[in-house]
Amino acid sequence: MKNKIFFLLAMLSCLVVGCKDEDIRYSIERPDDTMHLQVSDEYVELNQKSGKEEAVTFSWNEVTNAPLDSKVTYYFKLDIADNDFGTSIDKMEIPFGGHCVSFTHKKLNALLTKWKIAPGERVTLEAEIIAEIEETDCYVKPELSTVRFDVVGYEIQPYNIYIMGTALEGATDPANALKMTEEISEEVYTWYGVMKEGDYKFILNTTGQSPSYTQGADGSVVFNEHETGNETPFTINKAGFYVLKLNIEAGTLNVDYPTTDYNDVWMVGEATPAGWNIMSSTKLTKDPVNQVAFYYEGLLKTGDMKFPLELKEDWNVAWLMPIENGTHEFGDNRMERIEAGIQGHDYKWNITKEGNYRVTLNMYTMTIDFKLLQSIPDDLPCKEIWMLGDATPAGWEQGKEAFVYDFNVDKGTFYWEGELKAGSFKCPINVDGSWAITCYMPKQAGEDGKASLNMTDVQLVQPNGNDYQWKVEEGEAGQYRVELNVLTNKIKFEKKN
């Protein structure tokens, strides 16, 4: 029994010794601060106009208590004070031999924005320099030095850059320079449009040609505070549509000459010359200068329209449509492609003002532009006229054979071109499917109500009035240009063959 007790006591003695050994802790003290980190100003008020200038500089002394032949690497951190550097900038390694770090107004303001500090709010920041000592016989705890300062940021205002030069139509003078789009504040700017052979540069205001950004010796972008006459502009050697991306921080300019896979575009609808006859749709012209654009120049009437990308009698084709139904000619300029066979929408543009237009479709930007060249005068008795009768291609179907207003001849003149067959016709100014229509008719007619093509005097007849018509004889059939002047009440028939 005694032996067992002695054995247990011996084991307990060993356990006690073991626990005492494990409780030993070695504490390494942090070296004293011999770097004495300093800040250039205890209060800094940031200014956007001084964006590229240094706002604050941090400097420190070299570590003096590092062992001989050791390697010292310095790291810098910056954060909101009393945050234990929990949201600090990424730890910056200082290049060998360096003992200072600077921040520009723009960089420091960007950090305040990142930390969600409101513009104009005064905040205390804390900087820290860390000296890591390596290649020693024993571990040396990093030396630290901190400093605090106050800073007030600014609300970022647009920093405008313009493009000017002989390569841009009408922009050879600073007053007419074209504003670029600021994609990233004070850093990245874009512009796209048609350019011609010539040169161009970037300016910061529309009152003079300096300050400016021009071409450097290696094709880079250089900043010119003042105009010296030795600046080298950028050049365009081939006219066309270009996309420019200017990065003033990196000093680079990307110039893109895009292309398009679209080969043909048509337009159809009651606003167009073809009406809703898809197989007679009006084809747009490929722009000879703008390689990504198609255009139409001519009359558009009031009504709806859209753009088929091929012609099929079953209408099962791809389309270009607005992003909202009923978009008027000066509304949202965006468009989208709706593929054939997809149960998508059937949106249309709605033309609200009849007139002579230039319609341009840009297939790169997927935008449409309606430019009203001339509008039909408001003081005319009517703004729309049609041909109606069995002498016309559409016969007695209303709204198919429209006159076009001629802006190049006497005021009030409308014209129609097409085939006249043996038969009769009259010229309504309103078509609604009913026969309560007002028409231009011959001023005089025979007992049968018909007049020859020699009757050039016309009258405007209300519904339920005389139903006079012009008669085309068998030997008179052919291709015609018919002109009707609603101010002089005269009609002219010009046979083309």
TrEMBL record:
Residues 23-129 form the SusE outer membrane protein domain. This is SusF/SusE family outer membrane protein. It comes from the Bacteria. One of its GO terms (molecular function) is starch binding. One of its GO terms (cellular component) is outer membrane. It comes from Bacteroides caccae. InterPro entries: SusE. It holds the Pfam family SusE.
